[in-house]
Design a protein that fits this description.
43% helix; 3 helices
Length: 74
């Protein structure tokens, strides 16, 4: 598994729709299943959402938590 891809899943945001602006890692599994049923978006987003569904379905979301980058203030 590519560590950079996991970092992207933890930190990239959904660019459109009901959950626009939400981190991909926080998308509800029901929404990911809905997206899968209607057809994944084009790459690179579609494969990331498909992987996020697999991660959530297998109870592995906790693996992404240490990769979340917090916003630096200063």
């Amino acid at each position: 598994m590519n560590p950079e891809l996991l970092r992207q899943l933890a930190n990239e945001t959904m660019p459109f729709g009901k959950y626009a602006g939400q981190p991909l890692s926080r998308l509800p599994i029901a929404y990911l299943v809905w997206m899968q049923n209607r057809g994944w978006p084009a790459p690179p987003l579609g494969p990331k959402l498909a992987l996020m569904l697999e991660i959530k379905h297998n109870g592995l979301s906790y693996l992404l938590k240490p990769l979340v980058q917090t916003e630096r203030r200063g």
